[in-house]
Write a structure and sequence with these properties.
The complex is a heterodimer of chains A (about 270) and B (about 500).
Chain A: E1 16-25, E2 39-49, H1 52-55, E3 61-65, E4 77-87, E5 91-100, H2 106-109, H3 115-130, E6 133-143, E7 169-181, E8 188-194, E9 212-223, E10 241-246, E11 253-255, H4 259-265
Parallel strand pairs in A: 3-5, 8-10
Antiparallel strand pairs in A: 1-2, 1-4, 2-3, 4-5, 6-7, 6-9, 7-8, 9-10, 9-11
Chain B: E1 22-24, E2 33-36, E3 53-56, E4 64-67, E5 78-84, E6 92-98, E7 107-114, E8 121-127, E9 137-142, E10 152-157, E11 162-171, E12 181-189, E13 197-202, E14 213-216, E15 230-234, E16 240-250, E17 255-265, E18 288-297, E19 301-302, E20 305-306, E21 311-316, E22 319-331, E23 334-342, E24 354-357, E25 359-366, E26 372-380, E27 387-395, E28 400-410, E29 427-431, E30 434-442, E31 455-456, E32 460-461, E33 466-468, E34 475-476, E35 480-487
Parallel strand pairs in B: 1-28, 2-31
Antiparallel strand pairs in B: 2-35, 3-4, 4-5, 5-6, 7-8, 8-9, 9-10, 11-12, 12-13, 13-14, 15-16, 16-17, 17-18, 19-20, 21-22, 22-23, 23-24, 25-26, 26-27, 27-28, 29-30, 30-35, 32-33, 33-34
The chains are: A mainly beta (about 270), B mainly beta (about 500).
């Protein structure tokens, strides 16, 4: 059997990965959990990967709704891949999978940094894998996307729709210093980003003139007819659609000092 | 002429000045319940949990659901709701709302409502992710809000975008439709511009796969579209009202004028002329223009909270002829809250029964004894001493009001994480004679910030005014939390 490592973890990013020991079956750590044959009290022996909410759980008991139908016994140890379920005085999670702990899991359980950092790195890896272009450079300008040429499609059309969730698109011009992934013919690359601070968009990177960094860019098709400020981006004669680079995830912009780490993570 | 207020410039605080409506001496109530809804296991969180709603189960008022912009603490594909099974004294967080881990594990809007006798909980949400500029409407249901099972998707519509769904529900109590849940979701549907004000309704939402119909309630020709808030109110006799912001003008500075329009249906939205029972004598169109040409600024701010035109509506559960409306407009440099009433089924309306300067997020409800409750948040004082004061007022006649302060907290801390800072709405409802509500506020554990008392579930030291992590020792940053309250009628 092959050694289990972090890269073997299932896609879909469960919230928490931990090693735990089953203490009690058909039980729960708080009264708000609907108890069934599949709920168990589990002591967390080691948190392997988790968001901040779960990082403190080592040594504590929590409730696990077990995955699948296989019988488990008190005292057995598992690697649980779980998502959050109920938070009250205690915590209940739902296991996506649980694997009996074997020697093959040693690599997974070896100290590899803080559980929160592990999770963050995996999310970054996912963004890098999906990226079309990863560059280092400096933001030379941030502009409102150009208006349509008078007489062309969309020119003079009224703003619509008006919503508090409007992304308020802006265009950042990045002068490229190094290209780490993908191909780009020019020394400049234009990136669309939402300037809106609405709940929908606040986590997206907000580019600033003079900002130096590593930028993880994704080709995105946008229906320019549906965005009053993007109508000028549609190629002449095209049916209101433009392919642009965007950076919408917090993991899409990094300070330049991260360059070496990110280069290392990029898979050919 | 109204002073322009941009989102870069907060309005001045309200000085001590008399507002419309008589104020009665406030009686101290010993039974007011105020509870910080964040569970103890989340004591370390410092997210901006703004824009709250609650739904009390009329069939069992011990069962209450709540919502806010609270993300799944585990960052999973489900967003959470707050759940109480003891009348709001304690709360848990359960992740049962469809969302997306890659997009923040939350919603971009959420409201909740129980059927009055079915125990079913309905939700109207903007589901993440959605294409830029095209918010995605979901209408959801769970038959057992305690079960922890993911809510069932009844409607999933993006179209050209659907904004700010606001759900209300009622179970038909007698007649041929007895036992059926009627669900009305007010929303702003960009698929039907310029007449975007819409009620998505189902007259039997409790069945396995209910049909929903989009009823367009705007009969005029607004300026491009209507405003985001469309709020329904249901009476058990089949009367359904809705209020919305009918935009007349909208300029390049995001300033505009609007009519406050009320529509009514006398048969629960059943029949050929849905929501056309009220006809304005001025233009013979459906929908009474309760107030004409109010000014609003869609890019305005009051303190750190964005503005843009709030509306709220409530119908007297014991008399469907009596209906109250609250709305906001720009009056000079002020963001003014107004309360009006109709006693003849929305045909004619009073003048202002109550006005409050620089107050927003109005929510109104009427209890079974005919007492009206009003919830709002007012920005007071100026500069670094500015405070958000959350008040609950009540009146038995609509003219004399009794007020109590539920919270008075610093207005400039914590810093804003995103818009909206407090929420584009909060919520108030009644069950029997009791009023139940929810608001968002700075969560500093300081008894003097909560004059009616407060209970925290999360770890907090009220002597040092410090929030504490799950270890009950590590300090945690102040943030915005949802606070449940109950005021006995």
């Amino acid at each position: 059997m092959a050694t289990k490592t972090r890269s073997d973890l299932p896609e879909g990013s469960p919230a928490i990965i931990f090693k735990g020991t089953v203490k009690k079956i058909k039980s729960a750590t708080m009264k708000e959990v609907p108890i069934s044959d599949r709920t168990a009290v589990v002591r967390v022996d080691q948190v392997i990967e988790a968001p901040r909410t779960f990082a403190h759980c080592g040594g504590q008991d929590l409730t696990v709704e077990l995955a699948g139908k296989k019988k488990v016994s008190v005292g057995e140890q598992f690697i649980f891949h779980a998502n959050s379920w109920i938070f009250g005085d205690s915590v209940a999670v739902r296991a996506v999978t649980q694997e009996r702990v074997t020697k093959e899991h040693l690599a997974l359980m070896s100290p590899g940094g803080e559980p929160t950092e592990q999770r963050k790195n995996r999310q970054l890896q996912k963004r890098l894998n999906a990226a079309d272009l990863v560059v280092s450079g400096k933001v030379a300008a941030v502009t409102i996307p150009p208006e349509p040429v008078p007489g062309t499609r969309g020119a003079g059309a009224p703003r619509k729709p008006v919503s508090e969730h409007d992304p308020k698109w802006r265009q950042a011009v990045i002068v490229v210093d190094q290209t780490h992934k993908g191909k780009h013919d020019s020394k400049q690359v234009k990136v669309l980003f939402p300037a809106s601070t609405d709940v929908r968009w606040y986590k997206a990177p907000k580019f600033q003139v003079g900002q130096k960094g590593v930028f993880v860019l994704h080709k995105t098709k946008i229906k320019t007819d549906e965005h009053h400020e993007l109508r000028g981006l549609a190629p002449r004669g095209a049916a209101g659609e433009a392919e642009v680079y965007t950076a919408l995830d917090p993991a899409d912009a990094h300070p330049l000092k991260q360059q070496a780490v990110i280069k290392e993570m990029i898979r050919p | 002429m109204a002073k322009k207020t941009s989102r870069k410039t907060a309005r001045p605080a309200a000085p001590r000045k008399k507002s419309a409506g008589k104020m009665a001496a406030s009686k101290a109530s010993t039974n007011v319940l105020v509870v910080n809804m964040i569970p103890r296991a989340l004591s370390g969180e410092s997210h901006q949990d703004s824009e709250p709603t609650i739904a009390v189960n009329p069939a069992n008022p011990l069962h209450i659901a709540g919502s806010a912009f609270t993300p799944d603490p585990g960052g999973g594909n489900l967003a959470p709701i707050f759940v109480s099974v003891d009348g709001g004294n304690t709360w848990t967080l359960k992740s049962i709302v469809p969302s997306s881990a890659a997009d923040g594990s939350a919603t971009a809007d959420i409201t909740l409502a129980f059927g009055t006798a079915s125990n079913k909980l309905y939700a109207g949400i903007i589901r993440l992710p959605f294409p830029p500029g095209r918010p995605r409407l979901n209408i959801l249901r769970t038959d057992n809000f305690q079960s922890g099972a993911t809510m069932k998707v009844l409607v999933d519509r993006t179209g050209k975008g659907v904004d700010q769904p606001y759900v209300q529900a009622a179970t038909v109590l007698n007649g041929p439709d007895q036992g059926k849940d009627r669900v009305y979701v007010g929303d702003n549907d960009f698929g039907n511009t310029p007449r975007s004000a819409t009620i998505d309704q189902s007259l039997n939402a409790g069945k396995t796969s209910p049909a929903f119909t989009a009823v367009r309630i705007e009969s005029r020709s607004p300026a491009g579209q209507d405003g985001p808030p469309v709020r329904p109110a249901i009476h058990p006799d089949g009367t359904v009202y809705a209020v919305f912001h009918s935009w007349l003008t909208f300029d390049s500075n995001d300033e505009g004028t609007a009519d406050i329009v009320v529509v009514r249906d006398d048969n629960g939205g059943n029949g050929p002329n849905k929501f056309k029972a009220l006809v304005d004598s001025g233009d013979s169109k459906a929908g009474i223009r309760v107030v004409k040409r109010v000014k609003f600024n869609f890019d305005g701010f009051l303190g750190l909270q964005r503005t843009g035109g709030d509306v709220a509506i409530a119908v007297d559960p014991s008399n469907s002829s009596i209906v109250y409306v609250a709305y906001n407009d720009d009056v000079g440099a002020d963001y003014m809250l107004h309360v009006l009433r109709s006693t003849n089924r929305g045909v004619t309306w009073s003048g202002d029964l109550r006005t409050v300067r620089n107050a927003l997020n109005p929510a109104v409800a009427i209890n079974s004894a005919g007492k009206v409750g009003l919830l709002y948040q007012q920005l007071t004082r100026s500069g670094p001493t500015q405070r958000w004061v959350t008040k609950f007022e009540s009146s038995t006649n609509g003219t004399t009001w009794s007020a109590m302060t539920l919270a008075t907290v610093p207005a400039n801390t914590p810093p804003k994480q995103f818009d909206p800072y407090l929420g584009d709405y909060e919520h108030l409802m009644s069950a029997g004679t009791d009023f139940y509500g929810v608001f968002c506020a700075n969560n500093t554990p300081n008894k003097s910030n909560f004059p009616k008392g407060v209970t925290y579930q999360r770890n907090a030291n009220f002597t040092s005014h410090t929030l504490l992590d799950v270890d009950n020792a590590t300090p945690v940053d102040v943030s915005i939390d949802p606070f449940f309250f109950k005021v006995p009628g």
